[in-house]
Amino acid sequence: MAPRRCVVQDCNRVADNELGISMHSSPTNGSVRMQWKRFVCQHRKNFNPKGSFGICSVHFTNDCFIRAVHIKGTERRIKPGSLPTVWKNVSVSLSERSRRMMMNEILAEQEQDMNVEDVELEENAVIQADKELQAGDGVQTADVVQAAEVVQADEVMQADEELCDVDRV
């Protein structure tokens, strides 16, 4: 079974017919396998595969391939003895999982920043209201006094109604 991902550092590509990327299994033994491994080790110092490993077609030149014709269509195969040599044009593409993890981290940071801003806004509003009350701003002080008088009047009216209800019984 062919490997699923390219082992080259920062590549992680998978076979994709639409993009024209094919995966190629390492030779099983011999000097060609050692040269494939050396190519990978140029950027992955601790690379030491136990079995087969895969390198995608991006790391080979076009003359390394042959087309095999099958009933289902054509297949791009690597010529025997071909070596990976292409490092340039290897974009650092994030895997879908890495991309999701990075987006989740960014969103969490933004949400945390927004929560901190909301708390700061609320605290500033309370502080401002306290300052205005302490300063004795005429309009707000009058509003507070008027509200307190309304509450007291409501309490008196409720007490009077309760007394009237007791008298009727």
From TrEMBL:
Domain THAP-type: 2-87
GO molecular function terms noted in the UniProt entry: sequence-specific DNA binding; zinc ion binding
Name listed for the protein in its UniProt record: DNA binding
Keyword terms of this UniProt record: DNA-binding, Metal-binding, Zinc, Zinc-finger
Organism encoding this protein: Desmophyllum pertusum
Top-level taxonomic group: Eukaryota
InterPro entries linked: THAP1/10, THAP_Znf
SMART domains reported for this sequence: THAP
Top-level taxonomy: Eukaryota, Metazoa, Cnidaria, Anthozoa, Hexacorallia
